Amino acid sequence: GAGVSQSPSNKVTEKGKDVELRCDPISGHTALYWYRQSLGQGLEFLIYFQGNSAPDKSGLPSDRFSAERTGGSVSTLTIQRTQQEDSAVYLCASSLEGGLNTEAFFGQGTRLTVV
Amino acid sequence: DQQVKQNSPSLSVQEGRISILNCDYTNSMFDYFLWYKKYPAEGPTFLISISSIKDKNEDGRFTVFLNKSAKHLSLHIVPSQPGDSAVYFCAATGGTSYGKLTFGQGTILTVHP
Predict the structure, then answer these.
(1) Three-state SS annotation for A64-110
(2) With 60 as the cut, is the pLDDT of residue A100 above it?
(3) Which residues of chain B have a CB within 8 Å of the CB of A35?
(4) pLDDT, tens digit, for every residue of B35-91?
(5) Which alpha helices (DSSP H) does chain B contain, by range?
(6) What is the distance in angstroms between the Cα of B63 and the nearest Cα belonging to chain A?
(7) Which of A27, A31, A74, B60 sits CB 3.0–4.6 Å from A95 for a disulfide?
(8) Do A93 and B32 touch (CB under 8 A)?
């Protein structure tokens, strides 16, 4: 596609339920990132995939969060047993090579609301 | 531990004047810096970047200045236009955080006609 696509655009879920957020990166981009933005906050790094390397999971806030990237393309971010503090906009980005000197392109985000 | 800080949550300027957005960082390993712009309900879009081997990078109305000794960078927009009204995020990467962009909290810029 022309840009990074995320689905769903909005998700309302009950506390304790699991959710899956999907990201389709730009074709040919080897690097994929997940960030989240809570209300009034900056962009918080969650996880980074680069090619076939082991992902950098250092930003995942708890073991309820996991992400995978299948076939080096589509990525799914899974949040288990959601809590109200998980409410945020979850942003996915991709870049051509990853690392320094590369521009990351963002999707429009998934707004997650846990009630 | 906020490694990238944008201490001004908001900035208001008149159309045609200069907008100056500031960003400070604490990690001396950062060596590449980027500015992103974000409109409501959209993802951030890349604006301009600068490598630590430079102290200035210019692209049209946008100029980024880097002061490594002060660990400070700024984005200048001249002349400012109402369409520039958005949230501006500063980001940094490098060293052990290679490949990971660390963002500031953002500054809301409002340009009045």
Answers:
(1) CEEEEEHHHCCEEEEECCCCHHHCEEEEEEEECCCCCCCCCEECCCE
(2) no
(3) 103
(4) 999 998 899 999 999 999 999 999 999 999 999 999 999 999 999 999 999 999 999
(5) none
(6) 17
(7) A31
(8) no
A-chain CB neighbours of B42 within 8 Å are 108-109
* CA distance readout (Å), B60 to A80, B7, B77, B79, B109: 46, 26, 9, 10, 18
Give the tokens for residue B13: 């300027």
pLDDT score recorded for residue B73: 97
Q: Environment class of residue A85 by beta-carbon count within 10 Å: exposed (0-12), middle (13-18) or buried (19+)? A: exposed
Please give the Cα distance from A109 to A45 (Å, whole number). 14
Q: Find out whether the peptide bond into A8 is cis, omega within 30 degrees of 0.
A: yes
In chain A, % of residues over pLDDT 70: 95
Helix (H) or strand (E) holding A45: strand A43-50
Nearby residues of A115 by Cβ (< 8 Å), 6 or more positions away: A12, A13, A14, A15, A84
* Selection from A27, A35, A28 nearest residue A1 by Cα: A27
How many Cβ atoms from other residues are within 10 Å of residue B91's Cβ? 25
Q: What are the distances in angstroms from CA A25 to CA A55, A83, B53, B61?
A: 16, 27, 30, 30
